[in-house]
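Below is one such record:
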Amino acid sequence: MSKLELEIRHLTPADLTAVLELDKTCFGGLWTMDAYQRELDSPNSDLLGLFSPVCVIKVLGIGCFWSILDEAHITLLAVHPQYQRQGFGQALLYSVLKTACDRGLERATLEVRASNSAAISLYQKFGFKTAGRRRRYYKDNDEDALILWLPDLQQPQFQQTLDNWYIIINDH
């Protein structure tokens, strides 16, 4: 497959219909249109989209985090199933963490399904460690969530990690 032209940018209200379709595909309808609009309206929320002008699917991926004090709480990270395993999750996570760093945030955290080994592996590549477990966190099947944690976003070592990921993603 040829290298796709990709763009990652903050979402706008014009993107929300496509985002809702992606949400239904990836999460079975986790958030409503109103919920996404609240994210766009909140000064403490960053909602990013992954786009390609050459794809039929308008929004290939989404990433969102909330700025809570000095922490980025990653609430969403998803890539359309047809475009998974092509490095797009890495590109999105890189952009989410870069945006968090640019905001001056010190740490990142998230919850992930204990069975989602592909996502856990991606987060671990960026240095996330397991900090705990939330029992029966997911209401659809009572599955546990792992709490993942990434400290030191403002430290030179992490800035170097981001620079390395930028090179990997752009060579991909």
